[in-house]
Specification:
By secondary structure, this protein is an alpha/beta fold. The protein has helices at 11-19, 68-80, 98-101, 104-111, 119-122, 125-129, 134-148, 152-159, 238-250, 268-291, 298-304, 316-335; strands at residues 26-29, 32-38, 46-54, 57-61, 88-92, 114-117, 176-177, 192-195, 204-208, 213-217, 256-259, 339-342, 348-351. It has a 7-stranded mixed beta sheet with strand order 1-2-3-4-5-6-7. Strand 10, helix 9 (238-250) and strand 11 form a beta-alpha-beta unit.
């Protein structure tokens, strides 16, 4: 695949990303701030929270993990902009993953801010983060992994691999459901929601046509691609959702993209085209691997693919993600008649 490198709109942010550092708080535009909030024990290192100045305080896009370090970093970043946690009036959440949603409840407790989330993600919050519901989700994940052909000895470890990070989310149901195309009604801002399902069913980007900005969450990032996977809380064909969502934002008239990780950049259309080409390449690789055997499990396919590191060095949580992302590509291929699924335990995949 031809290499495409976006132009960073903040050289300092890019240099921090490349060097393994955490970038400084930055004033992006008048009334708009970028605040890096650390993520514990994660190669992404930080989430970029954006603070939008209002006449009576600030609104923030995403919040960070629920750790004291993250809370203190958010408070310190707001202080650079001249505000405190108590000044937050709204928390606009791009999606329900812990690094974006985890601190939202704690911020609301301290400030009285309202929390906004797309209905598709709002409907998943209880099962994902409520102690009374999580066991059902883990068992459903375990069943999916067994059908995928995950070895029996690894099932429990992989099915419960995300349990260790659940305490980093304050269970907080949203106060407001944000629909596709909705104007957020923030004074001084022409901010509009753009529903971009795929990474999660309710992922949102936020578009400011007047400022020609797209706050993209995890939907479009400068270097990496978000995980798009089949799992108990995904849609039936999440890769189709994601590819459609990429097409929906490709031609937006913006000058700059403000993502949830890495660094701000230009060339939205070029980056979208590169991500689409990446998935085309991955689909072709999976199609080829399926054709090498007369019946292969999803897990077997995943172990034979090219990853950023050798398979044996990938930790359990990421092996689960790799399996489920492979499954999303298999489902997409099956929906287009290129492979077929043979039901069973485990399921087998064959060329159509």
């Amino acid at each position: 695949m031809a290499k495409f490198v976006v132009t960073p709109s903040s050289v300092a942010q890019r240099e921090a990303w490349v060097s393994g550092a955490v970038p400084e708080v930055e004033r992006v535009r008048p009334g708009l701030w970028s605040i890096p909030v650390p993520i514990p024990v994660n190669p992404l290192r930080y989430v970029l929270v954006y603070a939008l100045e209002l006449p009576d305080g600030v609104a923030i896009v995403d919040a960070g993990w629920n750790t004291d370090e993250a809370y203190d970093a958010l408070a310190a970043g707001l202080a650079v902009a001249g505000y405190g946690i108590a000044d937050v009036k709204a928390v606009l959440v791009t999606h329900l993953h812990p690094d974006h949603y985890g601190l939202a409840g704690r911020v609301r407790e301290a400030s009285g801010a309202w929390i906004g989330l797309h209905p598709a993600d709002a409907g998943l919050v209880r099962e994902r983060y409520d102690d009374d519901a999580i066991d059902s989700l883990v068992q459903r994940e375990r069943a999916l992994l067994r059908r995928s052909g995950v070895p029996e000895l690894s099932l429990d470890e992989l099915a419960g691999a995300s349990m260790m990070i659940r305490h980093m989310v304050t269970m907080a149901r949203p106060d407001r459901l944000i629909e596709d195309g909705e104007d957020l009604g923030l004074p001084g801002w022409d901010l509009r929601a753009v529903w971009t399902p795929g990474h999660t069913p309710g992922h949102l980007c936020f578009l400011s046509p007047g400022r020609r900005l797209l706050l993209s969450g995890d939907h479009v990032l400068a270097k990496i691609t978000p995980i798009v996977a089949v799992h108990p809380q995904s849609g039936p064909d999440p890769l189709a959702d994601y590819l459609g969502s990429l097409a929906a934002v490709r031609d937006l008239d913006v000058d700059e993209v403000l993502p949830g990780h890495e660094y701000r950049f230009l060339e939205l259309a070029g980056r979208v085209d590169h991500v689409l080409a990446h998935h085309d390449e991955r689909l072709a690789e999976i199609d080829r691997v399926v054709g090498e055997d007369d019946g292969v499990t999803c897990w077997e396919v995943a172990t034979r693919l090219s990853w950023s590191r050798p398979w044996e060095t990938i930790p359990p949580f990421m092996r689960r993600a790799a399996n489920n992302e492979t499954l999303a590509h298999l489902v997409w291929l099956a929906g287009r008649g290129r492979v077929r699924r043979e039901e069973g335990e485990p399921e087998l995949w064959r060329r159509a």
